UniProtKB/TrEMBL annotation, chains A, B:
This protein's UniProt keywords: Flavoprotein, FMN, Monooxygenase, Oxidoreductase
Enzyme class: oxidoreductase
Domain Luciferase-like: 28-383
PANTHER family found in the cross-reference section: ALKANESULFONATE MONOOXYGENASE-RELATED (PTHR30011), C2H2 FINGER DOMAIN TRANSCRIPTION FACTOR (EUROFUNG)-RELATED (PTHR30011:SF16)
InterPro entries assigned: Diverse_substr_monoxygenases, Luciferase-like_dom, Luciferase-like_sf, NTA_MOA
Gene Ontology molecular-function annotations: oxidoreductase activity
Family assignment from sequence similarity: Belongs to the NtaA/SnaA/DszA monooxygenase family.
Protein name in the entry: LLM class flavin-dependent oxidoreductase
Superkingdom of origin organism: Bacteria
Keyword Flavoprotein in annotation: yes
Pfam families reported in the protein's UniProt record: Bac_luciferase
Length: 449, 449
């Protein structure tokens, strides 16, 4: 069989384009309507996607004027979606900076059990002072410190998920012995950021632990991904950049002693579809025309860490911006945005238009054939193992992708035509079930870490 | 209409009796099977219960040998149950000692939205060093400190739930204005235990915030309940004790400036049913015969804070136990158990038998008529506003209660015969929707706090 493409549906209220909520078709209350997300999840399942995904941050963005703000907590929403779907993987973002390992490991274990092995965790360290100030801190922790904490968080979480051997439960009613205490392994962890003594209070789950996903592309982020991640979401603007990122990450993963096949790279793409290229461009223009530029300027100033009022709409982005090293926030996104503005000599207005669709992810306007061609090129030219599909408008953009692009990908043999038997999320991504680190006897499947 | 009884189904794996899992009918894997809980939730809905409830603690109890251990995280499980039910309230236990207000407030807000206003929070401070050691502490925080933190936690959570006014969302597509920033109220909280700057990233929910439930009966617990709780679960062994507790809590609530009708008192009852009293007693004996006494001794020694090996199975409980004041754990449960042992001059074996069913809650073995009589007596004699129904074996014990006791309560006019129109959990309990503390204009409903 041809190497298979992995597709993830990145769901976001009324769509990834910041102005999508203003379209006549959009429901401005979609962000709190379960039925909206159920409809999206079922559309993605109709398209035999591997998984769906919810981004998140534990703070309210600065203004609710601009676009739908606030969102159902991802693990809660995905639990509800688990009961409304059968096959698709369910990936939730959660922060290592603003959670405790015991609680978070337990929630993901619970979702993995309830969904029959379909849970995934997009591991984020959460940039920004707004989030920090909601959790007792005065300022954002330094970038390197956030990643050091994330690594220790993962080590603890992996110990907790392994703290029950798979065959702990004996269920011996006659003898009155329910479980085997010898197969419980309390972490007894004492580290820099965490002390966690006891075993998890959930048995080992169908997948062992959730699929581990990561999306930071800074140096720290790539080092972390090479060590832990099984799937990586990334924003890449050109084929060459995507190829370089792909090769770099696979190489780092091999250097970390892991099989490079066991990390799947999924760039984001915002497909703006039309029956002709001209129609697609017109659809893109409609969205751009709905952008409120004053919001865009304020957002860009925050991203570039500039004082309010610095940017002028019809001037170019200032030339004297600091390098990524001096930035404590979302480092790789910063570099991408500055690079895009300089490479294409964009005015602030043009840059806002380019970012409005996907916040730095590749926006691709075209016919279904052109989108399928772009996907196939990146997939076959060493730039991607699959894609993070980010429809500009929801639900219509996901329906359009499923109805018009998915059949082409299937016809080319790149994507499954049906799910077949039930599989775990990790099985869908072609990854083995991780062995338990506490089991000393030869394990049936190789360990991932 | 006659004053109406409130019923809550307290769900626990294979049942509240510690030996229930050993019965032939019991599924020893019930604790991780969603379908088991869906079945229970639907049975409770068939019985037109007000709510169902899951207890919890963030630790694995000492031994998995004794009985099913570990459990799906309650908020996760209740989210899945929200999609499988239509009317019943969903009450999850969560700890103020081992959560952060921002994350927990958001999760409950999400559940309240997804369930259409059916979320409840059983607020616990979590006794025990095992839990503390899973969250970076070496020992359990002192009882009074746990309650001081809980009070500040509630104040912050209430600010977060009120941080969006009900009419924040404008959805003005033409003007490009989604929400009104003037109706967002960041808590800006700086306290002893928490600093939380920003507004919640979830809009105000159908109920405003989840029904607030509390179950501690210590002095600190009762003071906390009088200030915040809208429903109270309590363990009472005699009518006289229950009447005294009821009167005390209503009086404290009035002294705190609240309407005593706005706090509902629900003692726990473990109904062991039989078609005759003799059959009910025989059913109780079957359960008691399945207790493994060595586990019971170890459990009792921990509860009474005695060294291992102190208790002898056929001797009485030692007379020289310390008073509740000297105990840092579950204070009121300690007093109840010591009082029960002394009042009835029980041996350790007998005490274990009495506690095996409900861990201190009232076990009542009898015919459906006798159980209905007991419930009616407590309800009409100033001891209860309703009951926390704790079936000894699940699902059969809940089915039996719904099929045989509920019809009697309905025939006596004490319990609704159908749900009628959809209501929030707070409406089911006859409580008003809380006003938003940040709204200065006259509110349609009186504030609770």
């Amino acid at each position: 069989m041809t190497r298979q493409l992995h597709l993830n549906a990145f769901l976001m209220t009324t769509g990834h384009h910041e102005a999508s909520w203003r379209l006549p078709e959009s429901d401005p209350y979609a962000h709190v309507r379960l039925e909206h997300y159920v409809r999206l999840a079922r559309a993605a399942e109709r398209g035999t996607f591997d998984s769906l995904f919810l981004a998140d941050g534990p703070q309210l963005w600065n203004s609710v004027a601009q676009r739908p703000a606030g969102a159902l907590e991802p693990l809660t929403l995905l639990t509800a979606l688990a009961t409304a779907t059968e096959h698709i993987g369910l990936i939730a973002t959660a922060s290592t900076s603003y959670n405790s390992p015991y609680n978070l490991a337990r929630k993901f274990a619970s979702l993995d059990i309830i969904s029959g092995g379909r849970a995934g965790w997009n591991i984020v360290t959460t940039a920004g002072a707004e989030a920090a100030r909601n959790f007792g801190l005065d300022a954002e922790p330094a970038h390197a410190e956030r990643y050091a904490r994330a690594a220790e968080f993962l080590d603890v979480a992996l110990k907790l998920w392994d703290s029950w051997e798979d065959d702990t439960i004996l269920a011996d009613k006659a003898a009155g012995v329910w479980g085997d205490d010898a197969k419980i392994h309390p972490p007894g962890h004492r580290g820099t950021y965490f002390s966690v003594e006891g075993a998890l209070n959930v048995p080992r789950t169908p997948q062992g632990y959730p699929l581990l996903v990561q999306a930071g592309s800074s140096e720290d982020g790539k080092a972390f991904a090479a060590r832990y991640a099984e799937a990586v979401f990334t924003a890449q603007q050109t084929l060459a950049d995507a190829q370089a990122f792909y090769a770099d990450l696979k190489s780092r993963t091999a250097q970390a002693g892991r099989d490079p096949e066991h990390i799947k790279v999924l760039p984001g793409i915002v497909p703006v579809l039309g029956s002709t290229e001209a129609e697609a461009r017109a659809n893109e223009q409609v969205l751009e025309d709905h952008i409120v530029h004053e919001h865009g300027v304020a957002h860009l100033e925050r991203l570039l860490q500039l004082p309010t009022g610095t940017l002028e709409l019809d001037a170019q982005v200032p030339a004297d911006l600091p390098s990524e090293d001096a930035v404590e926030g979302a480092k790789s996104r910063y570099t991408l945005v500055v690079g895009l503005a300089r490479r294409e000599r964009l005015t602030v207005r043009q840059l806002i238009g380019r970012l409005g669709g996907g916040r730095g992810h590749l926006t691709f306007a075209g016919t279904p054939e052109q989108v399928a061609d772009a996907i196939e090129t990146w997939f076959t030219q060493g730039a991607a193992d699959g894609f993070n599909i980010m429809p500009p408008v929801l639900p219509s953009g996901l329906d359009a992708f499923v109805d018009h692009v998915v059949p082409l990908l299937r016809a080319r043999g790149l994507l499954r035509t049906e799910y077949g038997p039930r599989q775990t999320l990790r099985e869908r991504y072609g990854l083995p079930r991780p062995a338990n680190q506490y089991v000393r006897t030869p394990a049936p499947a190789p360990a991932l870490v």
